[in-house]
Design a protein that fits this description.
With 158 residues, the chain is mainly alpha-helical. It is built from four helices and two strands; from the N terminus they run ααααββ.
């Protein structure tokens, strides 16, 4: 009799611990288009990560207490999937931050270029042979260079 009583107690505890199945309402269907596809992927990836982590938590205790190789393999695959999903979300986050930083840098460059005065595109080119250049370097000029002094805003010759 005591065995039946113990079994009934265990059954009652299991019933009390169990969660009654409740039908979930169907989620609203989201329309995906070019303008919101990034947000949709980001949102669904986050939901997938959360559900995978929740499943890992639920299976972890069961796997730790038992030694069924299939349960251990399932837990391992869930952990691997969660890790890959988190890695992808992190890559998306980093890419979004880089895009934002690139846009800010481009705006700064544009504003800096707009404020800088534009110089005319001038190019001075001197064409000469090697001998002509050496002659200019080593020979004294034939003209005398005049010294100019600035006195009260006027140029005077000495």
């Amino acid at each position: 009799m005591s065995t039946d009583h113990e079994i009934n107690d265990i059954i009652e505890q299991l019933k009390a611990d169990s969660v009654p199945a409740q039908p979930k309402p169907a989620p609203p269907v989201e329309e995906v288009n070019d303008s919101n596809v990034g947000e949709y992927v980001y949102k669904k990836s986050a939901e997938l990560v959360e559900s995978t982590l929740h499943a890992v938590e639920n299976l972890k205790d069961s796997v730790m207490s038992g030694s069924d190789p299939r349960e251990i393999a399932a837990l391992s695959q869930l952990i691997n999937s969660a890790t890959k999903a988190l890695d992808q979300l992190n890559k998306i986050n980093i890419q979004n931050k880089q895009n934002k930083n690139n846009m800010e840098m481009k705006k700064l460059e544009i504003s800096a270029n707009a404020e800088r005065p534009q110089l005319p595109n001038m190019t001075n080119v001197f064409v000469a042979t090697r001998d002509e250049i050496m002659k200019q370097i080593y020979e004294k000029p034939s003209k005398k260079v005049q010294n100019l002094d600035l006195i009260e805003g006027e140029f005077t010759k000495e």
